[in-house]
Design brief:
The structure is a single chain. The chain is mostly helical and 139 residues long. It has 9 helices and 3 strands. A 3-stranded antiparallel sheet has the order 1-3-2. A hairpin with an 8-residue loop joins strand 2 and strand 3. It starts with a helix and ends with a helix.
Length: 139
Amino acid sequence: MQGHAELHNYALSHLNSLAIRCAVVIDIPNTFDRHGRATIILDIITKTELHAVKLSCLRQFMHVLIHSGIFDESLHVGESHTVYTFTLASSSMTMTQFPATCYLFTHPDTMLSTFISLEEWFRDPAANALFEIAHDMFP
C-alpha cells in the first residue's frame, strides 16, 4: 500500500510545477515583491487584476502553494486576515531577482521539451548540454 501511495505521489508531482507556473504567470510573486514580501489575499486579487469571484479558489490555490513550500502563511494577533509571505523558494520567483527562472516557468514548452530529450542526451557521448540537444542551441 505504501509503495502504491508513493507512486501516485511521483506521478502527480508535476502538478506542483504547474501550480508554480500559474503563480508566476498571474504575477503573484511580483505582487509579494511590491508589497514588501508579505501580503493578504485581497491585495493579491487587486494587484493581479483577478476577478473577485475567484477569491475562494485563490485561497485554495494559495494553500496548494503553501503545502508545496512556495509560500508561507501566518495569522497575526488582532488581525482577521491571513498574511502570506515569501519562502526561500518563492523569493527566487520574481522578475527582479531571477528573470531566467521566471522565463522557464512561463515557457513550459522549453522546460518540458528539454527533459523529453534526456534519454538522447545520456546516449550521445559528444553531447555537452541537455538544452543544446533539445533546442540546437546553448542556453
